[in-house]
Amino acid sequence: MLVHHFLEYYARNTPDAPCLSHGDTHLSYGEVDAAANRLANGFLDLGIEPGQRVAVLGENSIEHCLLFMAASKIGAVSVPLNYRLASAELAFVISDANARILLVTEGVERTLEALRDLLPAGVDLITGSHPDSLHWDAWLERFPATAPRVDVDRYAPFIQLYTSGTTGNPKGVVTSHYNLLQLTLMNLIATPRRPQPGSAGIVCAPLFHIGGTGSTIAGIFNGQHTLLHRVFDPEQLVDDMENNPVTSIFLVPAMIMAILKLPDIDQRDFSQLQTIFYGASPISETVLRRAIEVFQCEFVQMYGMTETSGTVVNLTPDDHRRALAGKPDLLRSCGRPSVGVEIRIMDPEGKAVATGEVGEIWVKSDTNMLHYYNLPDATADNLTEGWIHTGDAGYLDEEGYLYLKDRIKDMVVSGGENIYPVEVENALAKHTAVADVAVIGVPDDKYGEALLAFVVTKPGMSLDVDEMVEFCRDKIAGYKIPRQLQVIDELPRNPSGKILKKILREPFWQAQGREIG
Questions:
Q1: pLDDT in tens, 129-185
Q2: Which molecular function terms from Gene Ontology are attached (predicted)?
Q3: In this structure, are strands 275-279 and 298-305 parallel, antiparallel, or unpaired?
Q4: Taking the alpha carbons of 391, 203, 476, 417 in that order, is the dihedral positive or negative?
Q5: Helix count (H) and strand count (E) of the chain?
Q6: Is 332 helix (H, G, I), strand (E, B) or coil?
Q7: Which residue(s) pair with 213 in the sheet?
Q8: Is 45 exposed, middle or buried (0-12, 13-18, 19+ CB in 10 A)?
Q9: What distance in Å separates the CA atoms of residue 219 and residue 52, rounded to the nearest whole number?
Q10: Angle (nearest 5°) at CA 285 between 279 and 286
Q11: Between the CA of residue 356 and those of 387, 411, 513, what are the distances in Å?
Q12: For residue 171, what are the β-bridge partners?
């Protein structure tokens, strides 16, 4: 089976059933399949061959979903781009992916203007109406709505999502059809109340994240009506939850907290909602109790990463009930492995440690990525005989629950966004006043973690927060820019010169019991 087979199944059997909604646009399964066929035939007309990359840039849109399905039908690989990146960052990703097509949706015109001169040669540009590009509506009408006939292997790559890297450049994580379908099956088994045709789900996580992509594919897999939100808007989300048969949704805890702060939240009707899936950071007991009071539904925590195609460990509704019935420490756990998933805790030499001891978390699953695109050394470093090295430090308890303690690879997760400090440090190091710099994540009630920059300035020079933020604006994405700054005389280093970030983090995290948001 391939990802688009589920779309085609429902298009044959229930063509008039609602498939995708976005704003005022509502498309049935039959309409989505026909549009995806037109787009697939358009790609073939442009010479796209199996394995070639087609990229899409913009906020969440139906065009994203059509591109995913069209690429699936002809064996091409979708590359959804993070529209929040600076133009230079986007240009790097497009070039690194060897993208043959760039589809740009509405709302990112300013980004396109800045990006246009940086695009590699040979990229076909598709927009709504931008000059010197193929115009989406008129171009798409030229092609038939019949399905193209292209043989695609189930182990062929389906999507390439970019995740930040410890070297400072993002890496393309290549995920197959088989990976995504196994993920969907695993999550279906882990879902206490399984979604089905006639129900609806909301996707408000960005589609350049595995959370957004995975949720969208799961909706089509289950024959659901997917309400696709352009961006996360708590008021719009609550309106859609009230007015549609929404039974499940994926959120990060920061989103849950934003919804709970709405002034009329206690008067809203969530009677159809069955399950809230959440991930990227744990949920506090206070927030969980308040959320259960408001939503009156079950909660499932999900742990995974782009390299595992998403969720591989779940904290189930029963686990949440145990936590609230006198075992609150369970809320600091990620849960236990999903079906078919193996977890090992390893020491630096690659040997398993004893139960309760902290080491690096390794994961073996049918959902593990194929490789990093064109990075054989990085792939070899992070994928050993089918085991993904997560870069997270943690331990397993006697019951098999997984607990996170720290990030070996120094990543910060802020509001569900993965940020590698080295990218931020590289940008700040270009400032004329900066002699040395280190960036860490510190606890934040709203986002789980927030960035804090430690800067050593050059003699006679100074730097303040406003200047730092303004300097970074055209160099890195806005969410990567620190809003906190400490100017210090010297960064702590070990004898080999490595910055001791543990010392920098310790005063901020010692009351948390862990060094991870």
A1: 888 899 999 999 999 999 999 999 999 999 999 986 555 688 999 999 999 999 999
A2: acid-thiol ligase activity
A3: parallel
A4: negative
A5: 16, 27
A6: helix
A7: none
A8: exposed
A9: 26
A10: 110
A11: 20, 23, 15
A12: 163
The residue whose two tokens read 């310790």 is 506
pTM equals 0.84
Q: Tally Cβ neighbours within 10 Å of residue 473.
A: 12
Residues 6+ apart with CB under 8 A from 248: 191, 193, 195, 199, 201, 273, 274, 275, 276, 277
Kindly list the structural domains of the chain, giving each domain's residue range(s) and its CATH number in brackets, ordered by start: 3-315 (3.40.50.12780), 339-407 (2.30.38.10), 412-509 (3.30.300.30)
Lowest mean pLDDT among 195-209, 447-461, 502-516: 502-516
- Contacting residues for 385 by C-beta, under 8 A, at least 6 apart: none
Residue pair 187/311 in contact by the 8 Å Cβ criterion: yes
DSSP at 31: H
88, 89, 90, 93 alpha-carbon torsion, rounded to 10°: 120
Tally Cβ neighbours within 10 Å of residue 8. 17
Residues 6+ apart with CB under 8 A from 31: 19
Nearest to 411 by CA among 436, 390, 383: 390
In one letter, which amino acid is 182? Q
Dmax (CA) of the chain = 73
How far is 418 from 392, CA to CA, in rounded Å? 13
